[in-house]
Amino acid sequence: MLSYVIFSLTTAGIYGLLALSLNLIWGGAGMVNLGLAGFFAVGAYASAILSLAGVPVPLAILAACVVGAATGIGATWATVRLRGDYLAIVTLGFAEVVRLVAMNERWLTNGTDGLPGIPAPLKSVLGPQGFAVFYLCLVLAILGAVFFLLRRLDLSPFGRVLKAIREDQDLAGFAGKNAMRVKLIAFACSAGIAGLAGALYAHYQSYISPDHFQPLLTIYIFLAVTSGGVGRPAGAFLGAFLVILFLEGTRFLGHLLPGLSSGQVAASREMLVGLAFLLVLHLRPQGILPERIRPAPRSQP
Amino acid sequence: MTQTTRRQFLASSAILAGSFALPLRALAQEGPIKIGTLTPLTGAGGPYGPVMADTVKAVVAGVNAAGGVLGRQVEVISEDDQTNPEAGVRAARKLIDVDGVSAIMGTWASSVTTAVAPLCWESGTMLTTVSGADSITLLPHEGYIVRTQPNTILQGRKFGEFTVELGAGKVFFMSPQTPFADSQFSEITKVVEAAGGSTAKLIYDDKKPTYRSEVDELMAFEPDVVVLGGYMPDTTVLLKDIYRAGYEGKMLAFAYSVNQKLVDALPAEVVEGIYTIAPSPAEGSAAYKALTELTGIAAPDPYTTQIFDQVNMVLMAIAAAGDASGSAIRDSFRTVSQGDGKPVHTALEGLEAIAAGEAVNYDGASGPCDFTEEGDILDCQFRYEQVKDGAFTLLKIA
User: Fold this and answer.
1) Shortest CA gap B271–chain A (Å)
2) Which residues of A touch B21 (CB under 8 A)?
3) How far is CA B337 from the centre of its chain?
4) What is the pLDDT of residues A236-270, one digit of tens each?
5) Is the pLDDT of residue B14 over 70?
6) What structural domains does chain B harbor?
7) What is the reported pLDDT for B363?
8) If you average pLDDT over every residue of chain B, what do you get?
9) Which residues contact B5 (CB under 8 A, 6 or more apart)?
10) Contact A11 B90 (CB under 8 A)
11) Is there a contact between A207 and B54 if contact means CB atoms under 8 Å apart?
12) Nearest of B93, B142, B325, B22 to residue A132 by alpha carbon
């Protein structure tokens, strides 16, 4: 039981990084990124390929952030004039392109067979149990660090410009802010964090394949950010843990419903996820920890 | 005040977490034998997984009614892999860590099986699968993986042998980029060259509206048999172009691509005479009959026949080892699946024989169920059919 809890918390931590990434770009700059799974995949593959080629794991993870961020900049250049729904569709397409490349470029990604045997740092020294605890601490430490950096960012002038762009890009431009540049930086940071999450996932699982990066993952993260509270890092953080608690917790409900076949229990789990999403949106559309917008300082009379 | 409550909270939650862990540990030693199914109940494999899980439950219900295994009842825990390796790993962790199952059966998608496999060999849990990718049994699995699905090497060999049987000297292989195209072609080549023939390969893009240039290449090779390795949509287009080019030799394809739907969609003269091959359940075997009686399904799909065999063999392996741990199942698996023992066709029959001290050899609903060291099946039956007047005629099951 204990190792299951440790595993679930580690997964939640990785989901948490993805939620923070989405919160920065969606909650901060108001850009809807449905391609989150794509950036996650880019980071995972970058770190996996590099470490399988003999690069030390910490360097490979760092490189995954950089590759993720670079891909983010590329994707933003291509979509710089798109907003709202159009941007959302293009980013969704981006994630599918990443998945198709991973499927077909066998020389690089080993195609649909995926990449097994990705090095897990210190696993041979610590043993499976010790590794699980070590990795949980590592993921939580990184999650904590990213969380505090993003909170700092949120309160900084850069964060305020982001939110100004979210509310009205033209007005922000009128106030002398270079909206394009700010959006580019924000997207790069967000994609870098998603890439970092992907790298951590790859080294934890030791196996990745194109099937890992289905759009379902993006939906889970949207669920996390929406239920936690869009626009507030603490909300995204909380939301990710709630989503894992919910996804894993519903497993144990099946035994309480007698007379259902396994197929029906699985279907009811999916319905519960949908129902929870609806309830959150209906009862608390601003999320559990809503964004706090501080009032402007009172002007001196 | 806040200090105390936080401390109290931490202490009580630690106690709570501990109390979860303790009774489960204790139960795992004394209670029923636990085995798990990890089939796709939702997602792309959704049409197959629920029937598979229910079949395992039906087999175990029968065994429990007859007194269980080693005098203990057997409990089946079914989880959903959602046809997704990420979700599959979470489900497998729950089966292994919380339920403490000694075997996981029925993983379907190759990616899910590969993702779940390391958890199984690290925790000493047996994994039986219906996935076909060659790479799975090449993993460093220490014997913890067994699969009942013929791998692509075996399928390729059957294709090769059949082309030789058709009298082919020159075989032309056409396929889009699939995980199995390469290994299928190299196996065909091995068999055909051993019989003194020659082969050529062409990999095409499966989204093209026409295959004129590809068919030109085919015609230039002047083959006796063309092997089509594609899926239904691209094979439909390709067959039209092959007919238009005036090819008069024989053609051989997977039964899942040249199926009734394709035959109905194309003019009769285009598809006339095509041969098809598919892995076949051992229809007519005693185990197959037992399965149809147990589930009430007249023609169970291949995956259902395979998981039926898996649960039968797992239960017998536990009985033969006298121990319900994953490593015991691994060590005694091949003593019940193959060898010179008494042929048995269900777990009930096998458990009775094992209790009487006899050696057993399981012959299943999916085939003879004999395994190599790596965990692949040695042989399985295939179904050979030919299109005649717009309908499939059975040539043989062998």
Assistant:
1) 30
2) 1-2
3) 16
4) 999 999 999 988 988 887 777 777 778 888 888 88
5) no
6) 31-147+283-362 (3.40.50.2300), 153-279+381-397 (3.40.50.2300)
7) 92
8) 88
9) none
10) yes
11) no
12) B93
